[in-house]
Design brief:
- The protein is an alpha/beta fold.
- It folds into 2 domains: 115 residues, Alpha-Beta Complex (Nucleoside Triphosphate Pyrophosphohydrolase), CATH 3.90.79; 176 residues, Alpha-Beta Barrel (TIM Barrel), CATH 3.20.20.70.
- An 8-stranded parallel β-barrel has the order 8-9-10-11-12-13-14-15.
- Strand 9, helix 5 and strand 10 form a beta-alpha-beta unit.
- It is globular.
- It binds 8-OXO-guanosine-5'-triphosphate and magnesium ion.
- Belongs to the Nudix hydrolase family.
- Its cofactor is Mg(2+).
- It catalyses: 8-oxo-dGTP + H2O = 8-oxo-dGMP + diphosphate + H(+); 8-oxo-GTP + H2O = 8-oxo-GMP + diphosphate + H(+).
- Its EC number is 3.6.1.55.
Length: 317
C-alpha cells in the first residue's frame, strides 16, 4: 500500500434496536466538528482488526466481541487520502462513551443523514440503511391476483427491499401492477424498487429505481433525487466503477454462480466477486444462485448481502 495513504479502521456499533453510534470529531482534528463513526489510524505492525479493537477501546472504552466487514474503499480529501476499512460491531463489552470528551449519539440508520458526517461517509450510511437481502420478483404471469397474494408471505419472511422485475409487461401494465404492489409493500415498510423510467418511480410512490449499468452510463446525471434509491445491475468491475461515478447508491453484481435463468453467463465465483467489488465505494449485493444461506460467506467476500428471485420468492399459496 502507498505509504501516503492513511489506513483507517472504522467501527459501526449497532445496538439491539438497530441504532448506530456516531461521534463528533474534536475541533482540532481534520474534519473537526463533523460527525463520524469511531476509529482511527492503523499503527505499524498492527492488523486492521487490532487497530479497530485498540481505537474503539481508546475512543469509547469498549472491548469488541463480534464484528464483520461492511465496506472498504479509498477516499481522497484535499489534503489526505484515506483507506477506510469499515466494520459492523454487533457485540461488545463495556458501556460506550466519549472517552476523549467527544459527544456520542445513538442514531437510527435512516436519521444519519440529519447529521453533518465526514464527506467520505455517504456509502457507509447507505450500507447501514440498506438491508442484507434484496428480493427480486419472478415474471408475474397472467394471474395478477395470485402474484399479489404471494407478497404478504415475502413480507412475513422479513424482506425489506423488493424489486418488481417484469420485463415481459408493456409500460402501462407494469405501472399499474407497480401501484398495486406499492399499496401492499408501502404500509409494511418495504422499499419497492421499480425498473424503467425515473418518472414512473415518482408516480407510483416507489422507494427507488433499478437500472442496468449501461442505461445509467447513457444519461448525463443521476435520474432520481437523493431521497430515492438508485440501484444498478453490474457484471464486472468496470460497470461497478462506472455506477459509482454516475451517482448510484448500491449495485448488484452477478452471476456469482451459474443459474438456470442465465446458463451461458460465466460465473464469477466468490473470489471473482470479491475482486470485482474491491475498492468500490458502494454497497454491492451478490446475485446468481445465492440465497440467505450464503449471507455470512457473502459478507466475507465484501458483499452488502444477497439478492435473488428463487431463494426469496415464496411458493404459490
Ligand atoms: N474515524 C473515522 N475516520 C474517518 C471516517 N470517515 C473518514 O473520512 N475518516 C477519515 O479517516 C481519518 C481518521 O483519522 P482519525 O483522526 O480518527 O485518527 P485517530 O483516531 O488515529 O486520531 P489521532 O490522529 O488523534 O491519533 C481522518 O482523516 C478522517 O477524516 C469515519 O467515519 N470515522
Ligand atoms: Mg479517531
Amino acid at each position: 500500500m502507498n505509504a501516503d495513504v492513511l489506513h483507517i479502521a472504522v467501527g459501526c456499533l449497532i445496538d439491539g434496536y438497530g441504532r448506530v453510534l456516531i461521534a463528533r470529531r474534536p475541533a482540532n482534528k481534520p474534519g473537526g466538528g463533523k460527525w463520524e463513526f469511531p476509529g482511527g489510524k492503523r499503527e505499524r505492525g498492527e492488523s486492521i482488526e487490532q487497530t479497530l479493537a485498540r481505537e474503539l477501546d481508546e475512543e469509547l472504552g469498549v472491548s469488541l466481541r463480534a464484528t464483520r466487514p461492511l465496506l472498504r474503499f479509498h477516499h481522497a480529501y484535499r489534503d489526505r487520502t484515506v483507506l477506510l476499512d469499515i466494520h459492523c460491531v454487533t457485540a461488545w463489552t463495556g458501556e460506550p462513551h466519549g472517552r476523549e470528551g467527544q459527544p456520542v449519539v445513538w442514531c437510527e440508520p435512516d436519521r444519519l443523514t440529519d447529521y453533518d458526517l465526514l464527506s467520505a461517509n455517504k456509502p457507509i450510511v447507505d450500507a447501514l440503511r440498506l438491508p442484507d437481502a434484496y428480493a427480486i420478483t419472478p415474471e408475474p404471469g397472467p394471474d395478477r391476483a395470485a402474484f399479489l397474494a404471494r407478497l404478504p408471505a415475502l413480507i412475513e419472511r422479513g424482506v425489506r427491499l423488493l424489486r418488481l422485475r417484469a420485463p415481459g409487461l408493456a409500460d402501462p401494465v407494469y405501472e399499474a401492477l407497480a401501484r398495486e404492489v406499492a399499496a401492499i409493500t408501502g404500509p409494511a415498510g418495504v422499499d419497492l424498487i421499480v425498473d424503467r423510467e425515473a418518472a414512473l418511480c415518482r408516480r407510483v410512490g416507489a422507494a427507488g429505481l433499478h437500472w442496468p449499468a449501461g442505461r445509467l452510463a447513457a444519461v448525463a446525471s443521476r435520474p432520481v433525487p437523493p431521497d430515492q434509491w438508485l440501484i444498478v445491475s453490474c457484471h464486472d468491475r468496470a460497470e461497478l466503477r462506472q455506477a459509482q461515478r454516475c451517482g448510484a447508491d448500491a449495485a448488484v453484481l452477478s452471476p456469482v454462480r451459474a443459474t438456470p435463468s442465465h446458463p451461458d453467463a460465466g460465473p464469477l465465483g466468490w473470489p471473482g466477486f470479491a475482486q470485482a467489488r474491491e475498492d468500490v465505494a458502494l454497497p454491492v449485493y451478490a446475485l446468481g444462485g445465492v440465497g440467505p444461506g450464503d449471507l455470512e460467506n457473502a459478507w466475507r467476500h465484501g458483499a452488502q448481502g444477497v439478492a435473488g428471485i428463487r431463494a426469496f420468492w415464496p411458493a404459490p399459496v
